[in-house]
Amino acid sequence: MNSLAILGAGSWGTALSVLWSHLHPCLWDRDAARAKQVATDRRNPRFLPEIDLPKGIRIVSELG
Prior knowledge:
By secondary structure, the protein is of the alpha/beta class. The chain has helices at 11-19, 32-41; strands at residues 5-7, 26-28, 58-60. The mean pLDDT is 94.
């Protein structure tokens, strides 16, 4: 169970997930294909492509 959910994997959501990665956030993206790519590559190529996403961040496309 995650203690923090971030709705929206844009530049703000991605930055906040990195900032709060020690809380093991769940980062939600409405686009399933993009969420899968971000989860696999551990980078968000559309927003903040130069930032590596820590392993503690879970990226999802479905709520619940």
